[in-house]
Amino acid sequence: LFEQALLYNMRAHGTPIVACLSCIFLSLTNTNAYVPQYRSSRTQLSMVSTSTTDTKEQFPLTPPSKYPTARGTTVDSRQIVASGAGRQHLTAVRLAHILFASQDLADEALRKLRNAEMSFEELAGQISACTETRDKGGEIGWISVDESESKNEHLDLLFPPEARELAIQITTKPGDIVLVPSSRGVHLVQTVDVMADVRKMAFVKQRKSKAARARGGVLSGALGSADSKPLTYKLETMGCQMNLADSERIEGQLQSLGIRPLDPEADKKIDPDVVVLNTCSIREHAESKVYSYLGPHAKRKRDGDDVAIVVAGCVAQQEGEALLRRVPEVDLVMGPQYANRIADLFEDISNGNQVVATEATHIMEDSSKPRRQSTTCAWVNVIYGCNERCAFCIVPTTRGVEQSRPLESIVEEVEGLIEQGYKEVTLLGQNIDAYGRDMVPKRKFSDLLRTVGTIPALKRLRFVTSHPKYMSLGVVDAVAETPAACENFHIPFQSGSDTILQTMGRGHTREKYLHIVNRIRSRLPDASITADVIVGFPGETEEDFQDTLSLMEEVKFDSVNTAAYSPRPNTPAATWENQLDDATKQDRLQRINVLVKQHAGERRARMKGRTVEVLVEERNVRIPTQVMGRTTHGYIAYFEGDIDELRGELVNVEIEQTKQFHLVGKIVP
Q1: Which DSSP category does 112 fall into?
Q2: CA torsion, ordered 3, 4, 9, 15, to nearest 10 deg
Q3: How large is the angle between the packed helices 120-127 and 407-419, nearest 10 degrees?
Q4: What is the pLDDT of residue 414?
Q5: Is 61's pLDDT higher than 90?
Q6: Residue 434 carries which DSSP code?
Q7: Quick one: DSSP state of residue 616?
Q8: Are 242 and 385 in contact (CB under 8 A)?
């Protein structure tokens, strides 16, 4: 059996024989071992090269973190999860398969999937030899990881035990597709989803006070009880779009438990039973802001109020158990990877315990629907984490390594949103161009764009955030050739100086960035380009700063998010001695903001007199008789209209005035 598996996977994936033999040896000697068969040999895709002595000296060791983020360490989520609590407490995997009579047919099918010519479901429906699953897109269903419990016996004829064991031994990473043999033939097996016991993965701390343990808190007796009093929650979100999307998933979980949000008007005098703070650690003093916010809620608890306090997001991942020591009143600390599993963690809280959930785990699909903040536009995560090692950035430490979602899961979510009436979808990723490079076989983001962009009834498709190091010209072509894709690109450049870019560890040059811009301008001359930039990075000279200004003059961005550098925990740049003083950083920040506003105004000025399509989103909060929407460029537009009639509608607007960061117009036929 293993000899056949060796040959199949060598032929299908080009895996070196040494890697295949080592994985088989591991699987024979340790059923819980990680099988490194699919670790990418192209490590330069995942990290900045550390081959030179100078680089090693430039980036000294930083304090250890939950996720291995130092240069030279692994960024393969399979190995991280397999060697930790994620694999140990994996309970089930959801699989789909396509059955073939011959190896040649299986190889051809794998090629079609790799090139995004067909989806797994479509392929299964057309050519699978398994009549039991063919009409269900190859769906096998959930399979228990522990074969000894005989929970999978009903699948023995459908998907024989030897094939199940081998498939799970090779990979449990959602999105992976592998070839395994069985007595029925050759199976092309896709891992669709996983289920882990997150309660066992979490650190549970019993409260010292017997009274606190006996009382159990506001959640005690409330979960799963029809007689319990209705609970309320208040959720505050700090940070980026990823955090906003995570908050929607957290709210979906809370409401699935019957906990309702506080009404800003009707519940003004009511204190929430559950307080959730979804945190961001990007900017300076992030931790102080979190502790400051928690203060009044912690005091409520000390004064005898029954309130559950939850800290989620990046600061929670960064601080971990230290947060409980700093604010003992906190009940739950959980990293971003547990945003859709908060309901599972509440059970231990209801028993009077404190819980810290920060262990690495494969991202699981949502068990409940997110509570969307808009009825028109929706976020859809396509890849979590980041494998980059930028010297200034804390994200890899707090959000972990890259984990792409299966294409089929993304398409299913988007189709569901369209059925609910959503018109626009934004695909989210910390490094979205890396989508699919962690999968077996590898996928391309440009293929995902084309696939999602052709879903019927989807009016608009956006995506953030691109990385110049990995953004392929194929992505530009995909936007140009996909009608639903908006002509709007967000590509952070961070600096216009090659010296600073190298010091940052960005992995791209000024020339590479301008090459991407030129490609966009040639294919989509009217496209908008937005970016992020940091000024005052350690060692930045006035000449380096002038290089940044000159790049901005050359590109003329539609908008730029600017920031003065601030040291972040667990980042190499925070330990360097060549830090700039605050006065210099603030001076450069003010100067660059002047240029940002100038270019923003110039770019929007070209829209005057045009008639553009605007998707209406909300009321203009400053002028209630006006509505607010966005053009395909991402420009905000205000115009007179009734929000109750126009929300979610695509209307033609003639632009009469242009401002630095918005447009003003009127509806025309």
Answers
A1: H
A2: 30
A3: 100
A4: 97
A5: no
A6: G
A7: E
A8: no
